[in-house]
Amino acid sequence: MNPRTADLWHHYGRTRADTDREVPAAFYWNWGQDAGPGPEILGDLTDKCVGDLGAGAARHAAYLVTRHHPAQVIAVDASPAQHAMATDLYGHLAPRLRLVHSDVVNHLHARAATYDVLYSVFGAVDFTDPGKLLPAAAAALRPGGRLAFSTLAHYLSGTRAQPDVVPAGIPAKTPDGEPATMRRWVLQEHVWTTALDAAGFTRIDVGVLPATGEGPRTADALLVSAHLPR
Ligand SMILES: C[S@@+](CC[C@H](N)C(=O)[O-])C[C@H]1O[C@@H](n2cnc3c(N)ncnc32)[C@H](O)[C@@H]1O
Q1: pLDDT tens digits for 205-221?
Q2: Domain spanning 14-227: which superfamily?
Q3: What is the domain partition of the chain in residue ranges?
Q4: With a 6 A CB cut-off, is 54 part of the ligand 1 pocket?
Q5: What is the helix (H) or strand (E) element at residue 62, kind and residue range?
């Protein structure tokens, strides 16, 4: 299989999906998915149009449609495997949960000024050029709309985040198990702030969500939120 076109998210969350089909009991932003702030960061979602950018199995989106009262949550993911997993797990939550198989930049450009809230939990914001994604998100939000995302505060190796908008190649696996690499943007706080400002966002806030465990698989995260001017 050509690693350039292979679905590098084929394996992600597969073991969990075999045994855990429930809508999660909580919504977390942190790396360990076990502590810190929850969906209140998104504001009151009643009757709002909400988009999850890089939703994976759509567990966060399923939580929002079942516990809050949005008009709709649109869970977008470019991975055929993740989209299929989300459809299998939570397809029954349609039409309030809408699962879309698409690259987020293409999707956002086709949805000018339609979203009230966009969010990403270690999702597409981490794996897409911010120079393309952030302006597309700004275009898809209504005036006063909100973007929130969690992202790594440093590499999983412990190496410091980038001082510029520069991606790193990180290890991944093709569906066949062949080694591959994918690009991940791990950026310092001020770099996100500058990029959001350049894309037209205002009231930019960046907080640190500390790691909740020890060892190589834990990490501090950044929780970033920003608004479009009204
Ligand atoms: C680490 S997973 C996180 C999934 C989910 N947010 C969660 O917390 O479980 C990253 C997801 O982002 C998706 N993704 C990355 N870049 C994307 C893009 N440009 N458009 C759509 N989805 C993207 C991947 O397919 C993958 O499912």
Answers
A1: 999 999 998 776 789 99
A2: Vaccinia Virus protein VP39 (3.40.50.150)
A3: 14-227
A4: yes
A5: helix 59-67
